[in-house]
């Protein structure tokens, strides 16, 4: 969301944990291991991985496209097959009608309904085209900080999990309180823990 | 305390920072002095979101308009509403940013970077592309640094003895708003 062009929205994270040396070899190996795998020609429902910030189809990272000066810049790509609830319901109802007619019964049993539901879900899921989402990030390795160009908490959770798997580092979103802990020292941090809300009226 | 609890229990910190920053920016007509760097421009404009209460019972008040028309937002403050989101224009030296800053999560939304030659190139040349990316990173980090510098000034006052005096000044500012509003 706007890292490379136009208006941007982002949140800040801090990174915690040790990084192995040589750093850039480690990054190359781990980014390759967790790069994005296309699911257009499979029946997989979900895929998540890293792609280049310049091109969502580039998961090869020729010429180390994730390195920008001392920064690691990556895009998190998620492809997900989804079926709208209304479509699923329509196909379940349709299948139930077909079976009732075929078997000449008035009512579908609970177990049969569960089976139809699951079968229709899988069938429709396979026919659905994966919907892509791409979120960019910029990691300042020296400062252990990261800008993530999306403000949805769902995307944050996916980022935190993939980042941990890829680099073994824990991300913590920087909200005012923990930002304050980074900006203050010693006694002031103790004082910060004790403050209570002010009343302005 | 885990992050979810911190967000709920300490949300007043970000809201107080935005309210303080609004007052501070008006104290000297939009200028705030950063130690060792001189004055920077901080203008609250166009869009504000105030909140009152918690969870399902919370009320929201969205105010938009020109700077002079943010009267409703000021009146909201006099009713105990908290500033949750504000559109801010920041300028230092020849660079100017626009950002909508949220109080509880400190999100940087709808960020407009200063226009520089380096950020406007549509080049495919790898070296120029890397230069453009680095220029944008620099400008994003400069914005974060400025907000953090302002936040640091606020925090030093907030955790210290000066805070009581500062609250009185903010109260007076809010009261003036109330009087001005009643007169109009």
Q: Can you describe what's shown?
A:
- The complex is a heterodimer of chains A (201) and B (184).
- Chain A is α+β, with helices and mostly antiparallel strands.
- Chain A has helices at 23-33, 85-103, 110-127, 153-167, 176-183, 186-194, and strands spanning 8-16, 46-51, 67-68, 71-80, 131-140, 145-148, 170-173.
- Chain A has 6 helices and 7 strands.
- In chain A, strands 1, 2, 3, 4, 5, 6 and 7 form a 7-stranded antiparallel sheet that branches.
- In chain A, α2 packs across α3.
- Chain A is extended and about 80 Å long.
- The mean pLDDT of chain B is 84.
- Helix content of chain B is 47%, strand content 27%.
- In chain B, α3 packs across α5.
- Classes of the chains: A alpha+beta (201), B alpha+beta (184).
- The interface between A and B is large, with 40 and 49 residues.
- β1 (8-16) of chain A pairs antiparallel with β6 of chain B.
Main attributes?
heterodimer, A: 201 residues, alpha+beta, seven-stranded antiparallel β-sheet, extended, B: 184 residues, six-stranded antiparallel β-sheet, 5 helices, 47% helix, Recombination-associated protein RdgC (chain A), RdgC (chain A), Recombination-associated protein RdgC (chain B)
Short description:
Chain A has about 200 residues and is of the alpha+beta class.
């Amino acid at each position: 969301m706007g890292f490379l062009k136009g208006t941007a929205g982002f949140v800040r994270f801090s990174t915690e944990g040790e990084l192995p040396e040589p750093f850039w070899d480690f990054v190359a190996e781990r980014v390759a291991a967790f790069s994005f795998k296309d699911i257009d020609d499979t029946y997989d429902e979900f895929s998540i991985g890293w792609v280049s910030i310049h091109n969502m189809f580039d998961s090869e990272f020729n010429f180390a496209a994730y390195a920008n000066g001392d920064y690691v810049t990556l895009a998190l790509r998620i492809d997900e097959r989804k079926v709208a609830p209304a479509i699923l319901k329509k196909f379940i109802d349709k299948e139930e009608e077909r079976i009732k007619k075929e078997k000449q019964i008035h009512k579908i049993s609970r177990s049969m309904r569960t089976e139809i539901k699951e079968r229709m879900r899988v069938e429709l899921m396979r026919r659905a085209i994966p919907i892509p989402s791409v979120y960019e990030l910029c990691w300042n390795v020296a400062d252990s900080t990261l800008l993530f160009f999306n403000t949805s908490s769902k995307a944050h959770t996916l980022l935190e999990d993939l980042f941990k798997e890829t680099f073994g580092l824990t991300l913590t979103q920087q909200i005012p309180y923990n930002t304050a802990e980074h900006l203050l020292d010693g006694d002031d941090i103790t004082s910060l823990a004790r403050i209570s809300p002010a009343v302005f009226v | 305390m885990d992050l979810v609890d911190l967000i709920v229990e300490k949300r007043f910190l970000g809201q107080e920072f935005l309210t303080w920053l609004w007052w501070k920016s008006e104290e000297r007509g939009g200028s705030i002095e950063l130690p060792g760097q001189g004055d920077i421009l901080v203008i609250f404009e166009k869009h504000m979101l105030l909140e009152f209460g918690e969870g399902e019972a919370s009320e929201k008040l969205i105010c938009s308009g020109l700077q002079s028309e943010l009267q409703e937002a000021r009146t909201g403050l006099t009713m105990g509403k908290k500033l949750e989101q504000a559109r801010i224009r920041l300028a230092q030296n020849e660079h100017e940013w626009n950002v909508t800053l949220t109080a509880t999560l400190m999100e940087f939304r709808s960020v407009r970077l200063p226009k520089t030659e380096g950020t406007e190139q549509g080049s495919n040349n790898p070296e120029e592309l890397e230069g453009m990316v680095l220029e944008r990173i620099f400008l994003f980090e400069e914005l974060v640094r400025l907000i953090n510098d302002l936040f640091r000034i606020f925090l030093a006052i907030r955790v210290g003895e000066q805070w009581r005096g500062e609250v009185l000044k903010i109260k007076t500012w809010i009261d003036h708003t109330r009087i001005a509003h009643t007169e109009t």
